[in-house]
Structures are given as C-alpha cells and as structure tokens.
Design brief:
This protein has twelve helices and eight strands. It starts with 16 loop residues before the first helix and ends with a helix. Helix 10 (about 265-285) runs parallel beside helix 12. The strands form four sheets. Strands 1-2 form a two-stranded antiparallel sheet. It has a two-stranded antiparallel ribbon with strand order 3-4. The chain is globular, with a radius of gyration of 20 Å. Helix content is about 55%, strand content about 5%. With about 375 residues, the chain is mostly helical.
C-alpha cells in the first residue's frame, strides 16, 4: 500500500496528564498558572463541555480508560449547571458556588454540542439517559438563540443526535430552521469580496462553515452545502495563504475593508479549523484538505507565525495563545482541550486516508 498523505510521525504521543492535573471531583478548572491549576478562577460550563467532548472522543477512538473515568465528572457538572428552563449557568468558584444565573449563549451551544455527542457515543446507558434528559429540557431554548456561534454549536448537537435518530422529523425541521438563520446572516453580509456570516472574522470562525456543511449533509440541502464550501474557501484564503495556519487574532479581529489582527491567536480557532478541514476531506476525498488538516494541526507544534510550539511535551498541556512577545505559557483547559480534540481529529484522518488509499488500490486491481 502507498504511504498515507499525512505524516504520522509528526503526531506527539497521546497524553491526558494535564487534563488529570486540571480535573478534580467537581470538574475541570478553567485556567492554569503555567502547568498547575489556577484555583482562583474556578470552573466553567464551556470547558467542562469541551472536556466531555474530548473524553468521549478519546474513549471511542482509543478506549482510553482515563478518559472513560472522567466522562461522568464532566457530565455531572453540565447536569448540575442546567436550570429548570433548560438554560445553563456557566461560572463556578472554587468553593462550588455559581457566579451567574444564566451563562452566555455561546456556553449554551457548546454544552448542547457535547450533550448531543453523548447521545451518539455514550459508553454507558446511564450516561445516555442523563444526556437525553438534558438535551430535551434545553430544546425549547434553541430557537431563542441570537448568537450565530451558539446556533452553529447547537446544530452540531442536533447533528449527532439525528445521526442515530434520523426519523425524528421535529428535530430535523428544527435543524433546518437554525441552519436557515445562519443562511440569512450569510446572505445579509455577503459581498463580492466578502463571503462571510457577519461583517468581521472574529473567533471560532471555522465552526460556521462547518455547521452549514453538517446541516447540508443531514438535510440533503445543496444551498447549505454551497454556503459551507464558499465560506470555507473565504476563510482558507485569509488564514492559509502563507503556507501555514495564520489565525485571526483577537486583538482586533478582521473587519471588512480592514487589516487582519495577527495576535492574540487562540488554540480554539486552530481546533475549529482542523475540524472543518476534516469534514471537507470526509465529504470530498480531496487530498488537498487532508493536507490542510495536517497544516492546521501543526499550528500547535510550531508551524505558525512565530515558529514556536504551543504544545508542551513536558506537561502534556498547551499554551493559551500566540501573542506578540511569544507563547502565553499558561496552560488552561480551553487551550489544552483544543489541542487534544485536534490530536484526535488528526488520528481520524490517518484512518480515513488509509481507507481511501485501500479503496483506490482495490479499484485499480479490479480494473
């Protein structure tokens, strides 16, 4: 068999050392001071949702027993954070007191993504039942969302639920209505030189075309797919033109007719880019996007604007961002989980590319 188009040797060993360091019986801590948990900042819904997603992915792909051990911890945090009306609280102090009554819409969407993935991949029936209860308790909130990123994350949750419950016409129709809202935003902001959902490129950008591609697949909707590919190409043009991933920094974002802000680049944006290109490769089989997955992942390992690695091989954690004066050496949950989810996605490309090559060689032999 020919060699894979992706380089397996560039992938560091899989480790959950830093996740274990950041996690206690309540959940995963938001922040770290260099390589140790920062108790002052407590916990948040966003990171426990990301941690649940990562743990489920790791157990599904590698049967990682450490990941399996932590799944109920992260699931329990999300369960405890949910209000009676289906919304969620977000921030909790170290002494286990919530600091808000209702969290942000973005945190809500990330929780729904993780809960939907639990419905599809729960390793135990008890976890599935808890996720099912939370998911449907939250459903009445879905159409009240205003944040386009929250809508995108919620579409991911619906996507995973509907992949195994494809006869649920009500949830299919809800997915269509949410995707159509993203479509309306795209049509309202699109210009000849600006193929995007709003008047700037900000954070978690790649999740928006990814949501359209997944909605297009789920609903067999050609227009959603077209918008997904067109907006993906626009994002790729502005972040991959230097031969490596150069993310839009959050110092000032990238406004139409303005300049791209180079710093502070965030690991979650690299993760979203990895997931987007994996989705496009899965849909098309085009080796260009397979290489793009690798290029995006290598941002973590030093193929970035500063040529500095954010991944710390000593701790297994990931720096919190790429700043003007170097890497932010604090290794919080968000950045470490972004690295680990990206690591798992790259592993998936190995399997997909190997299967693709095998199919091609089989066809050649049969011919």
């Amino acid at each position: 068999m020919k060699n894979s188009l992706v380089d397996r040797s560039m992938l560091p060993p899989w480790r959950l050392d830093h996740v274990a360091r950041l996690t206690d019986r309540t959940g995963i801590f938001q922040h770290a001071t260099y390589g140790i948990p920062n108790y002052h900042e407590g916990y948040c819904l966003d990171d426990n949702a990301r941690a649940l997603l990562m743990a489920l992915m790791a157990y599904r792909r590698m049967k990682d027993e450490t990941a399996l051990h932590y799944i109920p911890t992260y699931l329990a945090y999300i369960h405890y954070a949910q209000n009676e009306d289906g919304t969620f609280r977000n921030f909790m102090s170290f002494d286990r007191k919530f600091l808000d009554d209702v969290g942000s819409e973005d945190a809500f969407g990330r929780a729904i993504w993780a809960i939907g993935y639990t419905l599809a991949q729960a390793p135990k029936d008890a976890y599935f039942r808890v996720a099912h209860q939370m998911f449907f308790k939250a459903v009445p909130q879905f159409e009240r969302l205003q944040s386009i990123r929250s809508i995108a994350n919620t579409i991911f949750g619906l996507y995973h639920y509907l992949k195994s419950h494809s006869t649920d016409d009500g949830m299919m129709e809800l997915t269509h209505r949410l995707a159509h809202r993203l479509l309306r935003e795209y049509e309202a902001h699109r210009h000849d030189d600006w193929h995007w959902f709003e008047s700037l490129l900000a954070y978690d950008n790649a999740l928006l075309p990814l949501a359209m591609l997944r909605a297009g697949e789920l609903l067999n909707n050609a227009l959603f797919r077209q918008v997904g590919f067109e907006s993906m190409a626009f994002l790729e043009k502005h972040t991959m033109s230097r031969g490596h991933l150069s993310l839009v920094g959050n110092e000032g974002w990238f406004k139409r007719d303005g300049m791209i802000s180079q710093f502070d680049q965030q690991p979650v944006d690299a993760m979203a880019t990895v997931l987007l290109f994996l989705e496009v490769y899965t849909n098309t089989g085009d080796p260009h996007y397979l290489r793009s997955v690798q290029t995006a992942f290598m941002w973590f390992l030093g193929e970035n604007d500063l040529r500095m690695s954010l991944y710390d091989a000593e701790t297994g954690g990931c720096g919190d961002g790429l700043e003007r004066d170097g890497v932010n050496r604090n290794q919080g949950a968000e950045s470490t989980l972004a690295y680990l989810i990206s690591h798992l996605a790259v592993q998936q490309t190995f399997e997909k590319s190997a299967n693709h090559l095998l199919r091609n060689e089989t066809c050649h032999v049969n011919a």
